[in-house]
Specification:
By secondary structure, the chain is an alpha+beta fold. The protein has an 8-stranded mixed beta sheet, sandwiched between helices. The termini are far apart. 22% of the residues are buried.
Length: 327
């Protein structure tokens, strides 16, 4: 794509217009000396030099401009044919733009499938979230399937080894034991279940049918980061590379390569959604254990809330006798 086509360049140089400019310039330069030194000779010399310069330089300029435009058009055409909506330099550099695009994708989606190492930020309740993402995570009508790396797997050990100095295993455990439980907690708050309904949900063998959050751990080496929505998906290639001078000697190696957003009707969306389903099928189901822990915590939380509410109601009654004694 970047090679010079000498045939095309020759065709530009030998074009009738440019040959005419060259000939006219060559004619004017000697013809100028027919006239004595003065304004006429100066004008003719200037015109001759200008035409000759244009005849020689213009075809080169137009050739490379046309080639550059053609190359750009090929890139745009290839992206369109591949179903690519957006390309982001990396999560490191284009974090804000990616968050905005994810916020738009989250609006009105019926589901979201997440495949990654740990999702330490996206599922962390203390991290800032865009309004539509926050609404989606709280909405129990939106099905969420979460695939994270099994912290006890050899694949996790290999990832932690290449990311020495980072908290790879700790991040996975925190997501599994805390962040996902917090996600379920927010959905329970929105559902406003009474104690009887909570007990029924806690004793159910399929509580995910009401909460619409499912979690599995996979043991493959991570090859791709996926966030799949109803109308598009976000993709980042995983790797084991630590390019010298590009990343710190220690720590996370993710977020450095481009992120691509594919539209729903693209081949890439279909293939990578199928990849997600394959990993999901072979993952270890942690849904029941995580959900029941989250429900138990939620019930304890509501008990504390009820006790605090009762204390607030009783406070005036406790203060009243004190006031009466002072009087």
């Amino acid at each position: 794509m970047n090679q010079i086509s000498y045939k095309q360049l020759g065709d530009f140089i030998c074009g009738k217009l440019f040959i005419g400019l060259d000939l006219f310039g060559v004619f004017l330069l000697p013809f100028a000396f027919v006239f004595p030194d003065g304004i006429v000779r100066t004008i003719l010399l200037t015109l001759g030099s200008t035409f000759l310069t244009l005849g020689i330089s213009l075809p080169f300029a137009l050739y490379f401009q046309n080639k550059h435009s053609s190359d750009n058009f090929k890139i745009i055409k290839s992206c369109d044919q591949a179903g690519i909506i957006s390309i982001f330099t990396s999560r490191k550099r284009d974090g804000d733009d990616i968050r905005k695009a994810i916020d738009e994708a989250a609006h009105g989606t019926g589901f979201v499938d997440l495949l990654g190492v740990a999702f330490p930020s996206f599922l962390n309740p203390t991290d800032a979230r865009t309004p539509r993402v926050e609404s989606m995570l709280q909405d129990s009508s939106v099905k969420i399937r979460i695939l994270i790396l099994d912290p006890k797997s050899q694949a996790a050990d290999r990832r932690a080894d290449i990311e020495a100095g980072s908290n790879t295993i700790e991040d996975i455990n925190r997501t599994r034991d805390q962040n996902i439980a917090s996600l379920i907690h927010t959905r329970l708050i929105k559902l406003r279940l009474n104690n009887s309904q909570l007990d029924e949900l806690e004793n159910s063998s399929t509580p995910q049918t009401k909460l619409n959050v499912e979690v599995r751990l996979y043991q493959f080496d991570p090859v791709v980061f996926l966030m799949v929505f109803s109308d598009s998906m976000f993709v980042e290639q995983y790797h084991f590379g630590r390019a010298p001078g590009k990343v710190f000697p220690l720590g996370c190696i993710g977020k450095y390569v481009p992120v691509m957003q594919f539209k729903k009707d693209s081949d890439s969306y279909a293939f990578l959604r199928s990849h997600f389903n394959y990993v999901w099928k072979h993952g270890k189901d942690e849904t029941l254990e995580i959900t029941k822990k989250a429900i138990t915590r939620y019930k304890a939380f509501t008990v504390l809330e009820d006790e605090q509410r009762q204390l607030d109601l009783d406070a005036p009654q406790r203060i009243k006798p004190i006031r009466e004694r002072r009087l």
